[in-house]
Every structure is written in structure tokens, then in C-alpha cells.
Amino acid sequence: MDPLNLVPYLPRAEWSLGPGDQGWLAMLGQVLKEYQTCTRRRSLLRARVMDFVTSTAILPLLLGCVGVCSLLKLLQWLRTRACVRNAVVVVTGATSGLGRECARVFHAAGAKLVLCGRNAKALEELTRELAASRATKVQTHKPYTVTFDLTDPGAIVGAAAEILQCFGYVDVLINNAGISYRGTIVDTSLDVDRRVMETNYFGPVALTKALLSSMIRRRQGHVVAISSIQGKISVPFRSAYAASKHATQAFFDCLRAEVEQHDIEVTVVSPGYIQTSLSLNAVTADGSKYGVMDETTAQGRSPSQVARDVLAAVGKKKKDVVLADVVPSLAVYLRTLAPRLFFSLMASRARKEQKPKRC
């Protein structure tokens, strides 16, 4: 027989109050009464708070605070755009990615652009696009273009002279051009390390030095270096890239200290992952193209947002800007405050990945 069928025949337990249960029931009743009293008090307090907030004295004050904050943000935004209006802005690596978005953002703000890159055709296409855009009420200017390769030291001096011929001076130099890398240190040839350093470090340094004298003579100028969060922390399988960005951070930090006496600003911008083709065009250990869109890159920030952040950094004359999510930002501080833990986590990540994935 199914045991469940026996349930109706089982004896039923009857419960009755014992001598000691009366005290417990009285205590329970007191607790419930106090709970109901507290609930009523909370409701009354909430009602009084709402009456106070919505009173004629507080509500206008709150609305006024919101209005003042909004007005300050608007004024800050207008000031940011005004600071580059009619300013001569040079953007390297302007044909794609973040450089292209910087060209659009600074053009819309009224800057006089000098667009630099290796692909003359792509530069001309961007120039036509910007000239045809009418998305702003600010007076815009037709950009100039200068074609050269940052990895060619001999071409940089001539390119700097050509840049100065456009308007006679440079107000803002945005060193944006760069190349990424994926590979293990043991398999990477020294030529690949040199190639990455030439593009990410020596090229921007050479162009900055070539234009710096004219800024010093005018006692006016702003140098922006687009670095990376990997210029502050090192990630496995990015050795050449991280090394070039660490060098960039150090050089422009030194430059900032040296040219402050000449009233020249230096800003280092360190973004996290950006939705660009940087990983697609990255070089590998043997010098070939990586050709893969990393998941982290695909899920990164939009280049237009980062470009607006660069514009804001220039307008506010910021020294050092980190544009990364919470985890990479925390890693920067973790490396300083708990280096042993940080390096242990990096080693664990390296063991987990073993080799950079091509998928």
C-alpha cells in the first residue's frame, strides 16, 4: 500500500496552551504592537519629510540647485568648445579609429585642422567629409592634410615644416597614431619590438620635438599624447605595446615638467579598450598582421565618446586622464598599493591564456 494513503489514519496531534505559553504569547503580542507602532511612526516621518521637501521653501531650493548644476555643465561645455575655436589642431593617425573621430569632434568645435597620416587618399576623403558636414552652427574651416610615415625619421622633420606652413603655428598637437601588438616575448623578434617602438614612441617624440620650438617661441601650445591604460599596467602578451606606452607616459610626464615655465600644456590620455580596428591591425611575434577583432575591443568604448573626452581634456587643460572601466582603473591603483598581488594576478592570467588567441 502506498504510504501516502495511510495519512488519514494516522493520529492527529492536538496542541493546547501550557502554563509557560501564556508568557510567550504575551511577549509576542507586545512585539507585534511595537512593530505596528514603529511602522506608523515611519509612515508619519516619511509623510513629514515629503511635506518638508515639497514645501514652498525647500522645493525651489532643490530646483535651483539642479538648475545651477545644469548651467555650470553647459558653461563648461561651451568653454571647452570655445577654447579650440579657431585654434590650429594637428591630429596624427587621422584616417581611422580615434584619430578620425578626433578630427570630426575638433572640426565641429571650430578648430583649424591639419590632418596627418600615411594614406593620402583616405585623408582627402576625410577632408571632403568634414567640408560637407553642416551639423554645427560654429564656423568651421577646411582642413589641411600632410602625408608622412611616423616610422620614417627622415620624413618627420619635413612633415613638421609642412605642418607649420599651413597656418604658421600649432596650438594643439594630438599624437594619436599608433600600432598594437599580440605575441609572446620568447617568440617575438627584436625587429617587431623596434617597429612598435618606432610607431608608438619614437615617432610621436620626434614630431613633438620638431614642433616644440615654435610653441616655446610663442609661449603657447598644448601637446596631447594618446597613450593607453597599458602605459600604466602591463598585460601578458602585450609586451612591445605596453613598453611603448610606458615610455610614452614617462617622456610626456618629463616634458610637462620642463615646458611648464613656457606656458605650454601637456596632457596624457590613457584609454582602455576602444571599438576600433587596433587589434585587427596589430602585429604578431613574426611581424604578420593579427587580423582578429578581440572581444574586449569589440565591447570597448565608442571612439566618438573618447574623442569628446579628449576635447574636454584639452579644454580643461588636464594633465593626466584615464578613460577606462572600473576594473582596469582599480588595477592601476592595485599595482601601486599591492604590487605582489597585482603581479600574481597577471601571472595567473598568463597561465590561463598560455598564448594569445586567434578566434
TrEMBL record:
<protein>
    <recommendedName>
        <fullName>Dehydrogenase/reductase SDR family member 7B</fullName>
    </recommendedName>
</protein>
<dbReference type="InterPro" id="IPR002347">
    <property type="entry name" value="SDR_fam"/>
</dbReference>
<dbReference type="InterPro" id="IPR057326">
    <property type="entry name" value="KR_dom"/>
</dbReference>
<keyword id="KW-0472">Membrane</keyword>
<dbReference type="InterPro" id="IPR036291">
    <property type="entry name" value="NAD(P)-bd_dom_sf"/>
</dbReference>
<keyword id="KW-0560">Oxidoreductase</keyword>
<comment type="similarity">
    <text>Belongs to the short-chain dehydrogenases/reductases (SDR) family.</text>
</comment>
<keyword id="KW-1133">Transmembrane helix</keyword>
<keyword id="KW-0812">Transmembrane</keyword>
<feature type="domain" description="Ketoreductase">
    <location>
        <begin position="87"/>
        <end position="277"/>
    </location>
</feature>
<comment type="function">
    <text>Putative oxidoreductase.</text>
</comment>
<feature type="transmembrane region" description="Helical">
    <location>
        <begin position="52"/>
        <end position="75"/>
    </location>
</feature>
<dbReference type="InterPro" id="IPR020904">
    <property type="entry name" value="Sc_DH/Rdtase_CS"/>
</dbReference>
<dbReference type="Pfam" id="PF00106">
    <property type="entry name" value="adh_short"/>
</dbReference>
